[in-house]
Amino acid sequence: xxxxxLIFFFWIFSNFNVFSQTTHKGLPxxxxxxxxxFFEYELTPIDEEMPASMKRMYRxxxxxxxxxxxxxxxxxxxxxxxxxxxxxxxxxxLANTCKYILESxxxxxxxxxxxxxxxxxxxxxxxLFVKDIRTGDKYTLHKIGTSQIYQPQQVMFxxxxxxxxxxxxxxxxxxELMKKG
Length: 181
What we know:
This protein is an alpha/beta fold. It contains five helices and six strands. The protein has a six-stranded mixed β-sheet. Strand 5 (125-132) and strand 6 form a beta hairpin. The protein is elongated and about 60 Å long. The termini are far apart.
């Protein structure tokens, strides 16, 4: 019950600015011309004063984060446009050079140390979206569950598939320019 309340509070808080932002379905029209930030998975600090069960949970999350970062670095190379990999805690310094971030409320909650384990029969689900850093506008891509948070190969596969579908002509033109140059 406490976990559900915490998740609900986080969801309400993260959507607090909903009136100042717009939500769109699909990718932004200028994604091929702008730089997107892909967040690396940050390690959660483990305090010796924590209960043993929390330490175990954070250790498992940290191990998953290390594995996921290795996979992210290899899979993101297939993204056809400009990108940066950044820590969530440092991305605001890139706002002058980057316009978008790939985000999910579940990913943010996981990085903030929220326990997202709902049991074997339940799973929390949230939108995966591209967010305009400057306006807060969200471009929803699809749903993502807690079981996919530390699976960047699945996330990047789906993102790349959508990008390649929408920007087929731009990618083809880019390849032709590279062949000539």
